[in-house]
């Protein structure tokens, strides 16, 4: 690599690594899901109720680096930059030049995938893993190097430990390879060596799932009942067309080029994989971002094909047109797609049409801000309220105090922002139901969320509300903090009975 392509790659990689630091307004906190993933570093295990363990080990690394927000944002940016590098290398494999790399790189940057890369969730690593798996298969087809299948197995195993979503790619790839000209891959012994590597890597988590009654099944049922029930199949399709806006024409053309462009014929299994994966997701009424990992390779294919179209005659002068068509819509919508405005400014900028497009949440209802943005407000305020409430407890009694929250976002945020100032917060939500501390004596209870229910109040001699989140644009607006004292001696046993009941509900079998 030399000259212009090298400089372009450096630019794109630096942009991906720094974008997260200036495209998020300073008034936003982390996202509620990020707090859960960060807290998993304090409870390392082979599995969790919500996700496999890979993200927890990244959280442990973040913790070792000091746990600052800049490190939280660094790792999804890093995974995005590595995805960009793989797009670049795929274009090289397909004999594309600098223009193909430019188009593919710009389209990756100016898409919903960049928004994914701003959040510390398993999704960025999932997209990277899908891209690497397809890149290795393209290299295998092109070079015939069977040892690449061992790397494919390694990647698949790690991808499984990151997010079970990779199983949908595998489910699409296997029949796609069988019906394509690359079915001979099933005669290669290295494929089964790679499969063994993948199974060995995945086995600790599979064993954990079996030992704990397959909580992933409960998690999927809960997801289907509370979130996917509000997803329409055509909504999924519309989301795929909206990922790249006008640039969707590039990945659509990439799919079509697999049919009629001779140099791409050996890679037709990618087109079949796309169709099969999409059919699965549409049937299951999946969220739109579940399929994002399939697109980076299509961007590389599309970039190479459009470079070929614009390589001769007067069509060469149209090359800048694609760059403009990719960049302009993103610049126009930038302040609505990324949290660069203050919440108040963003709320003021929301017209009825924009609210319909950007502010419909997983509950199917319209709100004042996009859901992810509302999920990044109020957490510091909540942690400060919890600390002030905790300080009202006599020093000698703080070891006999428990902080009980309504959901994992509340517990995770309190532990992240105020973890050194008070005892760890817990909740019956998500993985926290497994993380209750042992307490023989409990004299004070801090309840975070809605007002304590009667079944809790009856175990206390009194309670007082010490504050609430007053940010009206936060998803947690109105969340209160309550101090209960004079806790009955029987309450700890009752609490742990409820914990066991909740843990049992996560088991697919008893």
Automatic annotation (TrEMBL):
It is found in: Cell membrane. The keyword DNA-binding does not apply. The chain crosses the membrane at residues 7-25, 45-62, 74-91, 97-113, 148-178, 190-210, 241-262, 269-286, 292-309, 321-341. InterPro entries: LipidA_mod_glycosyltrf_83, RgtA/B/C-like. GO terms for molecular function: pentosyltransferase activity. Keywords: Cell membrane, Glycosyltransferase, Membrane, Transferase, Transmembrane, Transmembrane helix. One of its GO terms (biological process) is lipopolysaccharide biosynthetic process. It is a multi-pass membrane protein. Pfam families: PMT_2. Residues 51-208 form the Glycosyltransferase RgtA/B/C/D-like domain. GO terms for cellular component: plasma membrane. This is 4-amino-4-deoxy-L-arabinose transferase and related glycosyltransferase of PMT family. The lineage of its organism: Bacteria, Pseudomonadati, Bacteroidota, Chitinophagia, Chitinophagales.
């Amino acid at each position: 690599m030399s000259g212009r392509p090298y400089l372009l790659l450096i630019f794109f990689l630096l942009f991906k690594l720094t974008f997260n630091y200036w495209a998020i307004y300073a008034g936003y906190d982390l996202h509620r899901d990020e707090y859960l993933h960060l807290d998993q570093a304090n409870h390392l295990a082979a599995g969790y109720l919500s996700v496999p363990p890979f993200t927890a080990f990244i959280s442990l690394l973040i913790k070792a680096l000091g746990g600052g927000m800049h490190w939280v944002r660094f790792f999804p940016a890093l995974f995005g930059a590595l995805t960009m590098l793989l797009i670049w290398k795929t274009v090289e494999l397909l004999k594309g030049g600098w223009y193909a790399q430019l188009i593919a790189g710009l389209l990756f940057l100016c898409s919903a995938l960049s928004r994914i890369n701003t959040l510390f969730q398993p999704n960025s690593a999932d997209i990277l893993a899908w891209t690497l798996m397809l890149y290795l298969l393209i290299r295998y087809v092109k070079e015939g190097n069977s040892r690449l299948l061992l790397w494919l197995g390694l990647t698949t195993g790690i991808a499984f430990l990151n997010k079970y979503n990779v199983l949908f790619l595998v489910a699409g790839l296997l029949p796609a390879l069988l019906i394509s000209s690359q079915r001979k891959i099933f005669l290669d012994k290295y494929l089964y060596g790679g499969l063994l590597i993948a199974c060995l890597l995945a086995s600790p988590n599979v064993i954990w799932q079996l030992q704990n009654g397959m909580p992933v099944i409960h998690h999927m049922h809960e997801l289907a009942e509370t979130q996917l029930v509000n997803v329409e199949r055509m909504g999924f399709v519309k989301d795929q067309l909206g990922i790249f806006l006008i640039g969707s024409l590039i990945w659509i053309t990439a799919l079509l080029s697999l049919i009629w462009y001779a140099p791409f014929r050996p890679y037709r299994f990618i087109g079949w994989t796309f169709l099969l994966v999409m059919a699965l997701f549409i049937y299951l009424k999946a969220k739109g971002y579940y399929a994002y990992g399939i697109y980076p390779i299509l961007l590389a294919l599309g970039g190479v094909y459009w470079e070929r179209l614009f390589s001769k005659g007067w069509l060469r002068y149209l090359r800048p047109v694609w760059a403009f068509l990719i960049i302009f819509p993103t610049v126009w919508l930038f302040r609505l797609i990324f949290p660069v405005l203050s919440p108040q400014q963003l709320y003021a900028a929301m017209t009825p049409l924009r609210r319909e497009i950007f502010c419909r949440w997983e509950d199917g209802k319209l709100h004042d801000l996009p859901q992810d943005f509302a999920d990044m407000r109020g957490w510091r305020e909540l942690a400060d309220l919890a600390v002030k409430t905790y300080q009202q407890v006599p020093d000698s009694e703080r070891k006999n105090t428990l902080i009980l929250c309504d959901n994992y976002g509340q517990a995770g945020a309190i532990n992240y922002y105020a973890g050194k100032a008070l005892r760890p917060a817990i909740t019956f939500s998500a993985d926290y139901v497994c993380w209750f501390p042992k307490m023989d004596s409990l004299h004070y209870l801090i309840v975070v969320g809605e007002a304590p229910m009667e079944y809790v109040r009856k175990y206390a001699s009194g309670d007082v509300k010490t504050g609430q989140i007053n940010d009206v644009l936060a998803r947690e607006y109105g969340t209160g903090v309550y101090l209960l004292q004079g806790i009955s001696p029987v309450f700890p046993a009752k609490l742990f009975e409820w914990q066991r009941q909740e843990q049992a509900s996560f088991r697919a079998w008893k």
